[in-house]
C-alpha cells in the first residue's frame, strides 16, 4: 500500500480515517507461526482488544488463528465472526462470577486470575475445566500502565499463593487444563521472557492434567525506521526447545499458546488526518489536525511514539512541527517532529496505528469516531462507517421537566440581572 493509495483513501472516505493493510497482518501471523514451527501443537490466540473490527477477526480466522478475549462482548464478537467457542479463551479481570459462568456455558475456555472466583467457580462447576492465570512477579513492558506481571499488579494469582491455589483445586476437585501468564507489553529482552517462562514451567509441573501452557505475549514492534524490536525468531528457537524439553519430562505433548495483539496488527495500521491550521507562535510551529486524543489517545496515555509523515508533500523540505489535535485540552501527538513542509489541507499519516487506537477511541467533545478501511488484495474496503450525529443521540433518553419548576427557576434567575446602559448583563 503506497502513499498514493492512502491519499486516494482519504479522498474517498474523508478524514480522519483508519486504514489497515491485510497483507501485513497475514505476514506477521506467518512470521510468528514460522518462528515456533518446531513445536508440534501451537495455538495463536489473537488479542481482540487490540483491534476488534469483525472484518479483522475474520481475516485472522482464515489464517487459522484462535481468539483471546477479556469480556463477554468480545466473546460474542468472536462467535459472530465465525469462531467456534472452543477456539476462544476468555481471560477477564475483576468481572463478576455471573459473567464468567455465562461465558463458560457457551463452551469457551475460561481463564481465572484470582483465588476468590476460582474457589466459587470450582465449587459450583467442578466439571468445567479452567485455565489459571499466574502472576510471575516479573517487571516487563514499555510503560507502567502495560506492565502487568509485577508484584503490585492487579492481574493474576501470585506465585507465592500456589499452596493456597493447590488447596482450592484439591478441595473442589476441579480440573485445571491450562496455565497462563502475561508479563506486559513491549518486551524487548527475550531473556526476561524466558526467565518468566521458567517460572511458568515450574508452576505447570504441579498440575498433572494440563492440555496447554499460555505464555501471553507483549512482543515489541518497531515504531520508526531503525527501531529495535523483539527478536521473535531467536525467542522461537529458544522457547520451542525448552517447551519440547518440558513436554518430554511432563510425559504429554502439550499445546504452546500465545495471545499476540499488537504484534499482529500494529504495523498494519495507518491513521490519516487532515491539517486544519498551521499556527506559528513565538517558539513553536503547530500543525493542528482534524482529530485529537478522542481518536488516538496512545501518545497522551502511554507516551507512545507514532511516526508522522506528510504524505501530501513527501519530498518537501523538512521543518520542525508540533502536531496537535482539536480537542479542548492539550493533545499533542508529537513535539518538535521533523516532517516534510506542511500546508493547510495536507494529509498526515500516523504509522503503527493498528493496535489499541480505534478500540480506545471515544466521543469526547461530542466528536464522531472515524471510519475504518481495510486494504485487501490491492483494493480499499470500508469496514466501519464514520459516525453521524444520529449515532451520538442514539441511546440518549430525554428527561421530562415540570414546566412550573422551570418557570420559577427562570424568575429567580431574572432577579439577579441588572440593567446597565440599556443592556442586560449577568
TrEMBL record:
Annotated keywords: Amino-acid biosynthesis, Decarboxylase, Lyase, Lysine biosynthesis, Pyridoxal phosphate
List the CDD domains.
Answer: PLPDE_III_DapDC
Q: Which residues hold pyridoxal 5'-phosphate?
A: 218, 356
Q: In which pathway does it act?
A: Amino-acid biosynthesis; L-lysine biosynthesis via DAP pathway; L-lysine from DL-2,6-diaminopimelate: step 1/1
Domain Orn/DAP/Arg decarboxylase 2 N-terminal residues, every copy: 24-266
Q: Which residues carry this modification: N6-(pyridoxal phosphate)lysine?
A: 49
Q: Where on this chain does substrate bind?
A: 298, 302, 329, 356
Task: Give the residue spans that cross the bilayer.
Answer: none
Which HAMAP family does the UniProt record give? LysA (MF_02120)
Q: Which NCBIfam families match?
A: lysA
Q: What is this protein called?
A: Diaminopimelate decarboxylase
Origin species = Neptunitalea lumnitzerae
Query: What gene is this protein a product of?
Result: lysA
